[in-house]
Amino acid sequence: MISPVQLSYIFALLKHKNFQRAADACHVTQPTLSMQLKKAEDTLGYKIINRDSNPISLTKAGKQLYPKLSAIQQAYDELDIQIQRLKGTYKAEIRIGIIPTISNYLVPELYAKWQDEIGDVHLDISELTSPNLLTALKEKTIDFGIMAGPVEDSNLDQQILFNEEVLIYAPNIKNHTIKLEELENEYPWLLSPGNCLRTQMINFCKLDSAKKSEWNYEGGNLHLLTQMVEQQGGYTLVPQYYIPHLNLNPEDLKKVVDHTPIRQIIGLHLKRNTKKEDIVKIMRIIQRSKSGKNKLLENVELLPWEGS
User: Fold this and answer.
1) CA–CA separation, 130 and 99 (whole Å)
2) 164-185 in b/e burial notation, b at 16+ Cβ within 10 A?
3) Which of the 8 DSSP states describes residue 188?
4) Beta partners for 33?
5) Domain 92-162+265-299's class?
6) 8 A C-beta contact, residue 55 and residue 44
7) Partners of 260 in the beta sheet?
């Protein structure tokens, strides 16, 4: 059977797609990594890595063996953690990916609570767009993701953390409520592609391709968008829990007649996860922080994060 070290080299190659970068990540020389890979392939009786492709990839046999190799790697990880726990040396690290339009209010609000309740766990938090977050989960570069859902993926466990109403920020429209048709003549200010709030705005406001292409901002800064609305007119969407961080005039935030758009904030992790116990604790803290804050809403419309 191939060794844990050889398995780690295989997965490093699949992650970095390059022999030298994989060797650097494993703190070995490239010849050492290549030699151990060949020994592993000789043991299995099949080539696992296609050296001729650019970037490197799995061979046909490698693709068939990958699920079993992944399961063995997971078992090794679980065994290592259990041994550390028996020795009393285990220190968990949870790598969390959060989309920008959630992290800007959720991290400052809950970081201290996370530290108080799970202080023995090191939290490594990064901002990622929704597509990149899902990729990072699958590639195991993060352990837990927080984004707007729902997500259809049989390899992931997802838990609803809370629902969040989405409002229209439109200072030039004086009524407290507006009809969707009123937005047709207003300029939409969008986040960059990859941000789920952009897709939700395009779908809910039924924007055409011409309007989508006029604004080329690359980023997830809602504060900048609200400033552009104030300077240039038009409108943008603002999530409920983001509002206190923007210093906006409440009268400029509009509800839509016969529509209550919401986004569903979910927590995601791989179904087989050695850190599930600590991830569940993090999710429970988030759920408790929002419980009781959501009032009963009428004409609720869940905004999908995927689409045009």
Assistant:
1) 6
2) bbbbbbbbebeeeebeeebbee
3) B
4) none
5) alpha beta
6) no
7) 300
- At a CB cut-off of 8 Å and minimum separation 6, what does 50 contact? 56, 57, 58, 59, 62
Q: Choose between 184 and 214: higher pLDDT.
A: 184
Give the residue extent of every domain in the chain.
4-87, 92-162+265-299, 164-262
pLDDT tens digit sequence for 87-96: 877 777 899 9
pLDDT in tens, 139-192: 888 999 999 988 989 889 999 999 999 999 999 888 889 888 888 888 888 887
CATH number 3.40.50.300 given to 164-262: no
pTM, entire model:
0.75
